[in-house]
Amino acid sequence: MGKPKTPRALPDNEAKAVLRMIRISPQKLNLVAQLIRGKRVEKALAELEFSHKRISGQVKKVLESAIANAENNHGLDPDALVVKEAYVGNSLVMKRFHARGRGRSTRILKPFAHLTIVVREVEEAA
Length: 126
Hints:
Layout: E1 14-22, H1 26-36, H2 41-49, H3 56-73, E2 81-99, E3 105-121
Antiparallel strand pairs: 1-3, 2-3
Helix pairs in contact: 2-3
């Protein structure tokens, strides 16, 4: 028998992609996520392509995955997609110690982040 299928959390005109455990601080990742929020996917991909931020390549991969999910899994038109949401969440923080002068040590924090991108199909204004 098994349990019943979980209902879909997103509306029918939306698709999402998630990348977890990215080795960057959420604050820095959010700067790149702000670049693409609310933009058409073609424009967002161009922004990420020419961004100088180190993480922009991984964000571009997640956006491309969301576009592929929309096209292949949900039958949405990839030319009519807009980035509805791009949000960042905290993940674990690795704690390391660094030797300092006079026999002391300092804690070094190495944070990780999660990235979720939701794309939505918008109707073309004729």
